[in-house]
Amino acid sequence: MPKNKLFRNYISILLSCCLLITSCMSGKKQFYIQNPKFSSEKVVEVENRPPTYRIQVDDVLLINIKDMKGEPLGEFTFSPSENRVIMLNANNAEANLYINGYTVDIAGFINVPTLGRIEVRGLTVEEIEDKLKKLLEDYIKNPIVSVKLGGYKISVLGEVRNPGRYYLFNNRISIFDALAMSGDLKEYADRKNIKLIRETEKGTATILVDLTKGDLLESPYYYLKPNDILIVSPSKTQLRRANFPVITTAFAAISSLIVILRFFDVRP
After folding, report:
1. How far apart are CA 91 and CA 102, in angstroms?
2. What's the fold here for domain 60-149?
């Protein structure tokens, strides 16, 4: 084979490899919830109500107890006024929750002043309210009890624009709400393999969630639970791009060797 042709072949192979490495991600892979049933002419309804959350160990409850006139009863709570709860913010949320709230201990109990230890694990906040009202009837008439889940936090890590821990003040949040709070996914995030880590009674459970599937709206993992962790990995395209400088350096060395061999008229 002539030297010039051989040299051109080497260069062609080099350029082809570079183009392959820097290939762009398909636009279809970046679309959320792809379903051929979706239409602009017909509404597609999906039944997927948020699951009822039941209190677990280490949850933090915010409890306010008032008399029938609406006056706070400090002898039954650690925080004499709801004003302390309003002070929660992103900078000191965890500390304020610990100070103002009732942490569920390892046995599933909280310790309420005057009332003593009360088992709450496995109950909903509404069931805890009813339980406290019955206990308080021995002390006051027609008590007003408010119980909220205070330690509702999730973490979003990896290929998002604003990774971090987020404190929530409602009991319902979807996986898309969490990603929106973190600034959405980066361009080359892997939308087909979002890792969801969830606490269970036995430890932790991990599931991979595909954001492009249309049936995600029906998934039990569409709505998040307290202490859930989302980890977004980079796509294969991004990994290839990350390795590109190393590979191009190697190709540059090879091409330089080819040029030198050709200059000295030495066949590789």
Report:
1. 20
2. wza like fold (3.30.1950)
